[in-house]
Design goal:
This protein is mainly α. The chain has 19 helices and seven strands. The protein has a single domain, classed as Glycosyltransferase (Alpha/alpha barrel). 48% of the residues lie in helices and 5% in strands. Helix 3 packs antiparallel against helix 4 and helix 14 runs antiparallel to helix 15. GO terms for molecular function: cellulase activity. Pfam families: Glyco_hydro_9. InterPro entries: 6-hairpin_glycosidase_sf, 6hp_glycosidase-like_sf, Glyco_hydro_9, Glyco_hydro_9_Asp/Glu_AS, Glyco_hydro_9_His_AS.
Length: 489
Amino acid sequence: MAPKYTSLIFLFLLLNSFSYSFGGGHDYHDALRKSILFFEGQRSGKLPPDQRIKWRRDSALHDGASAGVDLTGGYYDAGDNVKFVFPMAFTTTLLSWSIIDFKRNIGNELGNAVKAVKWGTDFLLKATAKEGVIYVQVGDAFSDHSCWERPEDMDTLRTVYKIDENHPGSEVAGEIAAALAAASIVFRSLDSSYSNLLLDRAVKVFDFANRHRGAYSSSLHSAVCPFYCDFDGYQDELLWGAAWLHKATRRRQYREYIVKNEVILRAGDTINEFGWDNKHAGINVLISKEVLMGKAPDLKSFQVNADAFICSILPGISHPQVQYSPGGLIVKPGVCNMQHVTSLSFLLLTYSNYLSHANHVVPCGSMTATPALLKHIAKRQVDYILGDNPQRMSYMVGYGPHYPLRIHHRGSSVPSVAAHSARIGCKEGSHYFFSPNPNPNRLIGAVVGGPNLTDSFPDARPFFQESEPTTYVNAPLVGLLAYFSAHPN
């Protein structure tokens, strides 16, 4: 038997050994509905009449007032009450990509998914409305993190932070450009005037990011670090923004920019990571679609990088930075491991579709990675999240019979305004933080940071790395769940 087939059989046996199924399969469409619903619980600003998570109320209605601008709206990134624009923009990009690639699989949840994108883009348009200035954060993170209070009672500093030509931030501006460009594709057939507005702004923001190169982690270090400090540099966001602008506009200038800057902006670096900080694997997968379809031979190196990314995260031959727990979960060092699980799985799934359409496979040494294998690995990660794991626990709140009850989330853990109308101050909320009781408000659809390398999970608020949900965990999961709701087997 040829070595590559021996390795392939071994890999299938390895993946199947990670089986903890309840036996009844999963309701992927229900999980999809809940994963989108989660974003309504993260909304900031004036809530709309069709708000479905009823325990939330209006919050942060004066954001931006100190700077003479309207910065209301947008999303809280996680369990705190700060609006960090860098991860918010990445969330919006990935929600848009989920819709672009899996629109036909989303079914009757498409309207809610589009609303989730628009809640992000409406804010990004406000943040970029002033020529030569981009607002990149609302709220003093240190002040916020010293309190445990629901957003409706928030009285911490709502300091506004910005970048401009003298204080550059190419990584956050590049990500905003990517988000606006990706979202313009989503709205192209739904609202052409809004789509054009998004694309026009994306072009301007990218031009700003490229002309005034520099890291916001340097110019705003004391405000954004260590929370969303860009450890990987701004170069990848410039390529990422250009890639999405090329996809949205088909303008040759962006393709030429990608070719010209591929080496300068280090397209092949750290290929086995993808998230709010590091876009390299995503860039290579996104651009590879055209290469695989034979439309962009001058971008062949991106497909080579994408293939290398695939090989670097396969079970059994993984790079040391990508491990698998005994239960089969992807594990990478750092905070909130589930962000890696959903983002990397999203890339596996999208690339498998690109490979299928091009009738292509990925050679990985003695093994050949087929599109079917990549889908199998991605589905295994989704099933782990939904309950097929050693804890027999769904890591999505509200899905399945057993899920986290004490998530690290202020609004979820403090009694709602409806249940407790009197204000609950900064330090008064500590009582609820340390309480052993379940959270009084269920944040349906929230996916927590998840278990560690040994598959253990402490369902307790103080363990924020494991128990805190984030928007950028759910964004790529929307695409995954959409696909598997249409292709459960």
